[in-house]
DNA sequence: TGACATTGGTTCTAGTTAGTACAATAATAA
DNA sequence: TTATTATTGTACTAACTAGAACCAATGTCA
């Protein structure tokens, strides 16, 4: 059996992501939001709003999914759709007053919650983690590009 | 504004995981399976089968979700449920003959596909990645335990 | 200008997800 | 033995997910 040294790395990547989601998501739910909803609120905070296209690129939520997430945030009166003045196809999504108020509450609270997980990390630990993750990400993105070229 | 050196790390973690899922998932779909379905097939391969409880622990799929995933694999005649001889509550999930045949095809093919993403990685790169991810995972697991204790 | 392709957002389908409630069985304890 | 508690898998809800089909608006180019 040839050694597959990448398997433990992938295993750890998946478990690490799941552990992060569990920790982050539990706190987000206590604030009355889902993880994607929080992601949208956080992305729109301190902006004038942005199109579905831009929101999708920032959050990596595909447009079909985004329609539903924005629908539910609109039902909660946290965001609104406004027709784009420059492009008749495009909708601008903005925080409402209530959305801005919620952002001001939950965003710092969630950052503080996340920070607590990193109590023992040194500056070197952060730098090493960032580098390793970038290297991994670049490997997958490059491999994916190769596939698309081949097609 | 105090520096938040953990934010770039979390950003990279999420993007890295998404890049992995995109690369891995696209290949799995070409083989006619979804990612969780592949996960189940891979876990059951070369075993005598296992209970829902064990399957859930190995794959980190919660039991409510697992019922549906197994239902769909059973519809495809890739797995079967067998009553546990030792516990009247428990069901054993096994690969069928067709499931074993599929496992023998898709599992090595997928490993080979994944391996291609790691062309430039050295042994040191793998070790560094594994260590960093373990450190991150442990931080989230510990933080989560602290929450549960407090509750 | 007119034909054509592209883009932005919505809709639809099949599937996954966590969480909760539930029924049947098993384990524990009085 | 009986009462209580825990465990195993299923059913159900609300939400998210990618992907594909679709429509209207825009851009391109001959």
CATH superfamily of chain A: Winged helix-like DNA-binding domain superfamily/Winged helix DNA-binding domain
Main CATH class of chain A: Mainly Alpha
Task: Specify the number of helices of chain A.
Answer: 6
Q: Which regions of chain A have little confidence, pLDDT < 50, spanning 5+ residues?
A: none
Number of domains of chain A: 1
SS strand fraction of chain A: 5-15%
Strand order of the largest sheet of chain A: 1-3-2
Inertia-based shape of chain A: globular
Separation of termini of chain A?
A: 32 Å
User: Biggest interface in this structure?
Assistant: A-B, 49 and 48 residues
Number of DSSP strand runs of chain A:
3
What does the main sheet of chain A amount to?
3 strands, antiparallel
Q: Roughly how many Å is the radius of gyration of chain A?
A: 19 Å
- Helix amount of chain A: 55-70%
Mean pLDDT of chain A: 93
Explain what this protein looks like in three dimensions.
2 copies of one chain form a homodimer. The first copy, chain A, is mainly α and 151 residues long. Chain A has one domain (6-111, 120-146): Arc Repressor Mutant, subunit A (Orthogonal Bundle). The first copy, chain A, contains 6 helices and 3 strands. A 3-stranded antiparallel sheet of chain A has the order 1-3-2. In chain A, strand 2 and strand 3 form a beta hairpin. In chain A, helix 1 (6-30) crosses helix 5 (97-115). The relative contact order of chain A is 0.10. The model of chain A has no long low-confidence stretch (mean pLDDT 93). Chains A and B meet through helix 1, helix 5 and helix 6 of A and helix 1, helix 5 and helix 6 of B.
């Amino acid at each position: 059996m040839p050694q597959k040294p990448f398997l433990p790395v992938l295993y750890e990547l998946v478990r690490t992501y799941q552990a992060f989601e569990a920790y982050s998501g539990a706190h987000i739910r206590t604030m009355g939001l889902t993880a994607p909803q929080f992601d949208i609120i956080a992305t729109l905070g301190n902006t004038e709003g942005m199109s579905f296209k831009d929101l999708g690129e920032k959050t990596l939520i595909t447009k079909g999914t985004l329609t539903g997430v924005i629908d539910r945030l609109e039902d909660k009166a946290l965001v609104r759709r406004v027709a784009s003045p420059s492009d008749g196809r495009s909708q601008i999504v903005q925080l409402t007053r209530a959305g801005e108020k919620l952002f001001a509450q939950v965003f710092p609270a969630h950052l503080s919650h996340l920070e607590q997980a990193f109590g023992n990390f040194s500056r070197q630990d952060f730098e090493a983690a960032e580098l390793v993750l970038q290297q991994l990400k670049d490997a997958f993105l490059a491999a994916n590009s190769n596939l698309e070229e081949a097609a």
